[in-house]
Design a protein that fits this description.
Blueprint (H helix, E strand, L loop, with lengths): L14 E4 L5 E4 L18 E3 L2 H6 L7 E4 L3 E2 L10 H7 L14 E10 L2 E10 L2 E4 L2 E18 L3 E4 L5 E18 L2 E5 L3 E18 L2 E5 L2 E7 L3 E8 L2 E3 L6 E8 L4 E4 L8 E3 L7 H6 L9 E2 L7 E2 L5
Parallel strand pairs: 3-4, 4-6, 5-6, 6-9, 7-9, 8-10, 9-11, 10-12, 11-13, 12-14, 13-15, 13-16, 14-17, 15-18, 16-19, 18-20
Antiparallel strand pairs: 1-2, 21-22
Length: 312
């Protein structure tokens, strides 16, 4: 695994990795050195290389997709047509992918940065509107999202038992009036969030949570929240509205430095509060969060965990 800094995407100088052939080498901090990602598109997948490729997923919501490089909405070079940059970074910004993504989106340990949405009349906001499929292995960084309801950096709603968000994280700010979280707006009907974290400031009048805003029979496991939550009713550091819906929280943590403004629901998520430095402690990440730091996550020498990967 070659560790990358989650903010720059660059290889950490002097880091040591073992390749798939067992060869030990030292990674130089060369820009563009992305050897810890799949270099070729697997069979049955469509490669995502540009912002336009990302938007086109809406036309094939049952397909399987893999991100083949970092994307930045503010970068001219990440567009096929530079005119689209204005569309996605001004006015109402990005249109969330689909109304029901049922395929697989594999971020391939890459990041998507500077996602912008400003649409106070829209319900269902994030990189994806709603999903019944799988979203995994992606960092969504420095989001700036304002919508009406069901809002999260990665997906507005995880909808069913087949919905899975795994090995992913987000940073930035999100706000809406109803059901807003630091990763997803709502986890619904036995959806699963696993091995994820959020460092997002969440603002929402009703049902605001550090990871998810609303939870109905859903499961959140091996995950943590770092961001502040500014809520009204049903506000929580991990989840907002839990109610009597029998959602499950297993091995979930929140930062002791994160603030919560608002009324905690009478029945709320269970979590453990720890110092934020714990989240950059390899022993804590492997032994408490149970994350894979050999093939999936990298911890040392950066502020918070980033996605790594096995060299192919």
């Amino acid at each position: 695994m070659i560790p990358l800094d989650p903010r720059t995407g660059e290889v950490i100088e002097g880091s040591i990795a073992i390749g798939g052939d067992g060869v030990l080498f030292t990674a130089a901090p060369t820009e563009g050195n992305k050897e810890n990602h799949l270099a070729e598109v697997p069979g049955g997948y469509t490669g995502i290389y540009t912002i336009e490729d990302l938007a086109a997923i809406t036309s094939g919501l049952s397909g399987n997709y893999i991100l083949m490089n970092d994307l930045d909405f503010n970068s001219d070079t990440d567009y096929e047509n530079i005119a689209n940059k204005t569309t996605y970074t001004t006015s109402t910004g990005w249109t969330p992918i689909g109304s029901n993504f049922s395929g697989i989106f594999d971020g391939n340990n890459y990041t998507i940065s500077n996602l912008f949405i400003n649409n106070s009349g829209r319900d269902g906001c994030g990189l994806f509107n709603a999903a019944t499929g799988t979203i995994k292995n992606v960092g969504v960084l420095d989001v700036n999202i304002t919508c009406n309801s069901r809002t999260g950096p990665i997906v507005g709603t995880l909808q069913t038992a087949t919905s899975l968000l795994e090995n992913s994280y987000a940073t930035g700010v999100v706000s809406s009036t109803f059901r807003t979280g630091g990763l997803v707006g709502q986890g619904y009907d036995t959806a699963t969030i696993n091995n994820c974290y959020s460092n997002v400031t969440v603002t929402c009048a009703d049902s605001a949570g550090g990871i998810s805003g609303y939870n109905y029979l859903s499961t959140t496991s091996n995950s943590f929240s770092l961001g502040d939550v500014n809520g009204g009713v049903r506000a929580g550091p991990v989840a907002g509205d839990v109610g009597s819906f029998a959602s499950t929280f297993i091995n979930v943590y929140r930062s002791s430095e994160a603030s919560v403004v608002g009324q905690l629901d009478a029945i709320h998520a269970t979590y453990t509060t720890v110092d934020p430095s714990s989240f950059n402690n390899n022993a804590f990440v492997t032994d408490s969060l149970l994350w894979d730091t050999s093939d999936t996550w990298y911890v040392d020498e950066i502020e918070y965990p980033a996605l790594g990967g096995t060299i192919e």
